[in-house]
Write a structure and sequence with these properties.
25% strand; 163 residues; 40% helix; alpha+beta; 4-stranded antiparallel beta sheet
């Protein structure tokens, strides 16, 4: 099934059990959560041509702790749990394909997050620009600052210093 979601709307909310996997055709979504101080933290961004799901919550059928929000207007294909079961029974290698997609997604996540732990704010921003050149101008600075673990004013200073 093909669906659309408007900018700022939530595809998934914390506390709910995810029942779908999506393939993002157009747009950017972000995965975020609230820390123990009630601050919204952006974990990462997903852009076009990617599968998305809170895979742990989806597989275990437990409530998610994360939100998935449209950063831009988005369009996507929805794969329900029933559709996934049917594909698994119809396509011989389907489960193997899904395992490979999941493993790659988890590796990509680790490769995005791990280097950021040892870099200072300016290095994190420059790394982000290098790895995701198409995202920087498509997402609000507040989300980018949250993702980088800095304040919006710090991000503005960094951006001014490298122009």
């Amino acid at each position: 099934m093909f669906k659309e979601i408007k900018k700022d709307e939530y595809f998934q909310e914390a506390g709910r059990i995810p029942r779908e996997i999506i393939f993002l055709v157009n747009g950017i979504m972000r995965i975020c959560y609230y820390n123990n101080k009630g601050e919204e933290i952006t974990k990462y961004f997903m852009e076009e041509n990617r599968f998305m799901a809170d895979i742990n919550s989806y597989n275990q059928e437990i409530p998610s702790t994360e939100y998935i929000q449209a950063v831009t207007d988005c369009s996507y294909f929805v794969l329900s749990r029933n559709a996934m079961r049917e594909l698994s029974m119809t396509i011989i290698e389907w489960d193997n394909i899904i395992s490979k997609i999941t493993a790659k997604g988890l590796a990509d996540k680790v490769n995005k997050i791990s280097p950021m732990m040892s870099e200072d704010a300016k290095e994190r921003y420059l790394s982000f620009l290098e790895k995701f050149p198409n995202l920087a101008n498509r997402i609000p600075l507040s989300y980018l600052a949250s993702y980088l673990g800095i304040t919006q004013s710090s991000l503005s200073r960094i951006r001014r210093s490298i122009r």
